[in-house]
Amino acid sequence: MRKIIYLSVLLICVLGVIIKAGIIREKDKKEIININSEWAKYGKPVDVFSVKRGDLYVRQNISGVLKYDNVIEADVDGEIAAKLEVGQKILTCIGEKGCEGEIVYVSGTRDLISGLYKVRVKINQGVKINKGAIVVAQVVIGKYSNVIYMPKSAVVINNGGKFCWVVKDSIVKKKFIKTGISNGSYVQVVSGLNIGDAVCVNGIEELEEGSAVRIRKTETL
User: 0.85 cut: is pTM over it?
Assistant: First the structure.
């Protein structure tokens, strides 16, 4: 008798799980249909960036400790040390607005124990940072002037080729491009786009040639 009761309870639980799973699947199906209907009616929402011409800065983050007289002391590996030199400017210190300065010292030899190179960065006196605080400084290690650029997130790689989606009159068109130098966030456009082209940077999944879209946000620097 106990066995029969146990099996009955187990069967009821299994049936409950199956029914619940079916309800969830049906709900998901309706949500997908609703989303597709909304896209068909109003267009798929995308964020765009207007292709620009200007200076493209290449930066290197270095993390160090504020020691004295607004001097940050950091230890970096040989690959990073090779990119640094005295006089290079600091555009910003992450977490500190208005933090600017320059590199004042780069060791030519590595520490025998750690194998790292000592670097010192002098930041401006107008920034108040507590001694001993850990600061991440962005060093400008390169500057490319008068280049056409856009966010790297706009680039789609397919079968070895590169393209991006360009919005015009609420319709997207695939444009194949050639890219150049990059600073990790932005990439140079060598050919394929014009200044002012609105390239999709978010919402590019499932886009197809001729898809209707609506611009949700235009990103700026």
Answer: no
